[in-house]
Please model this.
Amino acid sequence: MPTTFGMCFPRELPGAVVTEFARRLDAGGVDELWLIEDCFFTTAPPLAAAALATTERLTVGLGILPAVARTAAVTAMEIATLASIGPGRVVGGIGHGIQSWMAQMGVATASPLTTLDEVISSVRRLLRGETVTFRGREVTLEGVRLEHVPDPVPPVLAGVTGPKSLALAGRVADGVLLAGPSTVPHVRAARRAVEAESPSAFHIVTFTHVAVAQDREDAYAELAPFVAESLDSPGFRDLPFIDDMRQRHDQRGLDGLVGMPRDWWLQIGAIGTLDDAIEHVALLEAEGVTGVAFFPTPKLDVARRQVDDVVAIAASR
Model:
């Protein structure tokens, strides 16, 4: 599959500006806009509807709908409704959801893995136009069929990170969405976890953080706080130099991270000069990704400027 380039719409941004971002990306030749759904900020489907209605070619991704926040039937209805607004321009994303948030809402499941299996499998069957009767551990459907079946059928990706969940994605989903922070080694490990279970036409989409500056150290300084917060995250665990990073941070704080070698930063994100960002994308492509979505700084004025950086990276193809 050819690599698609996109941009994420961070949860901190006001929903009112999503059409601005969508139109600029669409005009700039960027392929996708991924709408972040995190509790308790904004929900992805209404943002996606606004983005689809105001663009001509932009694909819109849902990143990521928690499996238990809606019933499987409602999730399928929402994806199908969006697909009717923008046929062929919708990608579904379904994940476990942060379990503490699910508990706050009273929808936590005793078996997140089984729940994700049942939800994704049911949603994909409904989107294909099947009449579904299913009685599972978490999902119950009695003769449910969508009245408006999307054509073409949108792909549904599993937004997961753990080995068991990645293997499940290879069996039941159209692809996997690595929502990040996802380093190059993490993408490599995820691909290996799914490839034994997945068909050849499997989507691997990854979110990667972006910071572009003429002086790469300015970009490093901008992302150093994010890196510090991510040192114990699943997306960083496969970095071969993670212990050295922690030691640098312990000894010198953010300055220790800013002073890391360029090769380390290239493994972490599209961070540095424009050429550095393009080289990072090449590393991800070498690991088999089919889509890269750039995660901007969650400050409106900065994110607005970074749209131009994403357009420039996409134009480098």
About this structure: The chain has one domain: 4-212+271-315.
